Amino acid sequence: MTHFLGISGVKEVIPVTKTYKLVGREFQQENTIVKIGDAVFGNGSFPVIAGPCAVESEKQVLSIAKSVKAAGAKIFRGGAFKPRTSPYSFQGIGKKGLIFLAKVREEIGLPIATEVMDVETFDLVEEYADVIQIGTRNMQNFSLLRRAGNSARPVILKRGMSATLAEWLMAAEYIVEQGNINVILCERGVRTFVRHSRNTLDLSVVPAVKKESHLPVIVDPSHAAGIRDQVISLAHASAALGADGVMIEVHNHPEKALSDGPQSLYPDQFFTVMEKMKAIHAIIRKKNEDIPY
Ligand code: PEP
Ligand code: MN
Questions:
Q1: Neighbours of 122 (CB within 10 A)
Q2: Which ligand 1 atom is at minimum distance from the Cα of 188?
Q3: Which of 6, 76, 111, 222 has its CA at 20 to 30 Å from residue 128's CA atom?
Q4: Exposed, middle or buried, 29 (CB in 10 Å: 0-12/13-18/19+)?
Q5: Whether residue 281 has pLDDT greater than 50
Q6: Cα angle for residues 166, 246, 201 (degrees, 5° grid)
Q7: Nearest Cα to 165, choosing from 146, 190, 147, 142?
Q8: CA of 178 to the centre of ligand 1 (A)
Q9: Mean pLDDT for the chain?
């Protein structure tokens, strides 16, 4: 190390021993802060992303966006391209959905988070999204990660459903290494043997991410739980955890939703969850004031 410091023009040498270099705390001690509209991720605040699993119609997204904005959500979510386990399930309405999302941004005034499924549609999604989501099934789609790394848009990188923390951070490294530092990690539950929920929310990964990485980390209790009542409890837990925000699925008619209805909150439930998360986060923030990350 001292050897390098002796070279003229070298001001500082940072030893990096981890395989994920750029996203590691060893490389950068201060939190990375990602701003999208009024939402700030990584500065100790707790912005909420909310909306339906899938964009179904213009009326549907405008109605839900109005409700979630009134409840305090800072970003609207909705998938136009849906990565479904079965090829026979609803696949999303594609470009039409992106156009409806643009209408939400224009009329309701919320930035848009929407998923990109492949490199082929990246340019199109990028045109409409304020923040691009890469889903759990694509966490190790390395060409997609590289393309996201060349985007000017921030990226929400969901954890693969069976990914270790190191694999997740290396996936983020693919994006950052291409020059896009605006990456928000999102824990959305991992596959376990349990049958009482869709996945198992790995709450413990949040403090582990904060120790290992400077990137903000949010929680998606909706896909973790898969069941509305559990989503509510896990959302409260996420606020208590010191996560940098949450993403929650909300639908105006969950019983008629074309995807993920059973886990989608009714707008009035979302309103109550927001109030409680706000109160819980206020307590946690005070207690965490001394923590450097
Ligand atoms: C989604 O957010 O609707 C989604 C498909 O999430 P995940 O990739 O976590 O399953
Ligand atoms: Mn969903």
A1: 19
A2: 9
A3: 222
A4: exposed
A5: yes
A6: 55
A7: 190
A8: 24
A9: 95
Whole-angstrom Cα distance, residue 50 to residue 46?
A: 13
Q: How far is the CA of 135 from the centre of ligand 1 (A)?
A: 5
C-alpha 129 – ligand 2 centre gap (Å): 17
pTM of the model: 0.94
| Residue 14, Cβ density class (10 Å: 0-12 exposed, 13-18 middle, ≥19 buried) | exposed
Which atom of ligand 1 is nearest to 82's Cα?
Answer: 5
Rounded (5°) CA angle 267-270-272: 115
Condensed to tens digits (0 to 9), the pLDDT of residues 230-263 reads: 999 999 999 999 999 999 999 999 999 999 999 9
- Cα gap 274→278, rounded to integer Å: 6
Q: pLDDT digits over 90-120, tens only?
A: 999 999 999 999 999 999 999 999 999 999 9
Q: CA-CA distances (angstroms) from residue 192 to 162, 195, 200, 228, 250? A: 9, 9, 6, 19, 25
Enumerate long-range contacts of 194-203, CB under 8 Å, 24 or more apart. 197/224, 197/225, 197/226, 197/227, 197/230, 198/223, 198/224, 198/225, 198/226, 198/227, 198/263, 199/161, 199/223, 199/224, 199/225, 199/226, 200/224, 201/225, 201/234, 201/237, 202/159, 203/237, 203/238, 203/241
Is the CB of 210 inside a 6 Å radius of any atom of ligand 1?
A: no
Dig out the tokens for 148 from the structure.
């996201």
Q: Confirm if 129 and 137 have CB atoms less than 8 A apart.
A: no
